[in-house]
Specification:
single chain, mainly alpha, Four Helix Bundle (Hemerythrin (Met), subunit A), about 70% helix, globular, phospholipid metabolism, CDP-diacylglycerol-inositol 3-phosphatidyltransferase activity
Length: about 325
């Protein structure tokens, strides 16, 4: 046998790196490079679970998430408080306070159930802005001399949050939360939104101050003297609406939805001690909250202007 033949046979007996390692399993010839049946079944199960999870996520009803259900309940309580607001200060204050306190619960539920959504964040903000605005509208009617102050607070609250939300979405991206503020942009806003405790205290005491002012409109003769108080012993000769000396006010304001009925309800004073305490304690925090609103509006304006400069520069370079 020649040397060349021997070398060829030896090469046939030695497997190379490119050849497949053959093995016998249950009487059948298998290659190590092909997956086993167990591996195939595991991969198939993994793909099935992934497909089922994806299908479940696609079928999720965002509107029925736990924090959003709490948000709907807040809206119901807010509407109920508005219904009782003109004539029933105690019931209105209770319903309004519960609606505000649930603002913290829906955030906890979103984190606990991992159900944080953009819809829920917008629903929460819209509910807060609308309920606060409605209460300030009532305060404007209760104290006409201070109406411009309450109207200014409404404008500041709406403008600040709208500009901040719009700047966050347009500059930070659609997935960016309005509560994620970089410390380099505003240290005050970073501290305000970064700590849940600080955010809760500021929002709660801000609403509490407005509730205290609302109760004072029913309780303080200094701030809201009744238009139905009789003037000395003078008796009116005719039943003229709005005449404080009319002997039988109920005959003038028979409708419970009239402006006169509101004055009659306010004439039935409640004790003003606790409303003064509530207002006095929460007023400094309310003022700080308005300062934060101003800072937030200015910061959002600068951020939007920065985006405008970048867009104009990019358009000139094209």
């Amino acid at each position: 046998m020649s040397a060349r033949t021997r070398r060829q046979k030896a090469a046939l007996n030695v497997p190379t790196d490119d050849s497949e390692d053959l093995s016998t399993h249950n009487g059948h010839l298998e290659t190590s490079s092909s997956p086993s049946k167990t591996t195939k079944r595991a991969a198939s199960k993994k793909r099935s679970r992934s497909a089922a999870r994806e299908e479940e996520e696609n079928d999720e009803n965002i509107f029925l998430f736990a924090p959003n259900l709490i948000g709907y309940f807040r809206v119901v309580l807010a509407f109920a408080s508005l219904y009782y607001m003109p004539l029933h200060p105690r019931t209105c204050s209770l319903l309004y306070s519960v609606s505000c306190l649930l603002d913290a619960l829906d955030g906890y539920a979103a984190r606990y159930f991992n159900q944080s959504t953009t819809f829920g964040a917008v629903l929460d903000m819209v509910t807060d802005r609308c309920t606060t605005s409605c209460l300030l509208v009532f305060l404007s009617s209760a104290w006409p001399r201070w109406a411009i102050v309450f109207q200014g607070l409404i404008c500041l609250d709406l403008a600040s949050h709208y500009m901040h939300m719009y700047a966050t979405l347009s500059m930070g991206g659609s997935g960016q939360s309005h509560k994620k503020v970089d410390s380099s942009r505003s240290w005050i806003l970073y501290q305000y939104y970064h700590s849940r405790v600080v955010l809760f205290i500021c929002c709660a005491l801000n609403e509490l101050c407005f509730i205290g002012l609302y109760l004072l409109s029913f309780s303080s003769p200094i701030l809201s003297p009744s238009l139905l108080q009789p003037v000395g012993d003078v008796q009116a000769s005719s039943a003229q609406p709005g005449n404080p000396a009319h002997p039988v006010p109920t005959s003038l304001f028979a409708s419970p939805w009239s402006a006169g009925a509101l004055e009659m309800a306010r004439a039935n004073k409640i004790d003003s001690f606790w409303p003064w305490v509530i207002t006095g304690i929460s007023a400094p925090v309310m003022l700080f909250k308005q300062f934060v609103n101003i800072v937030q509006m200015v910061n959002a304006s600068k951020w939007l202007a920065e985006g405008d400069r970048l867009n104009r520069r990019a358009s000139r370079n094209k």
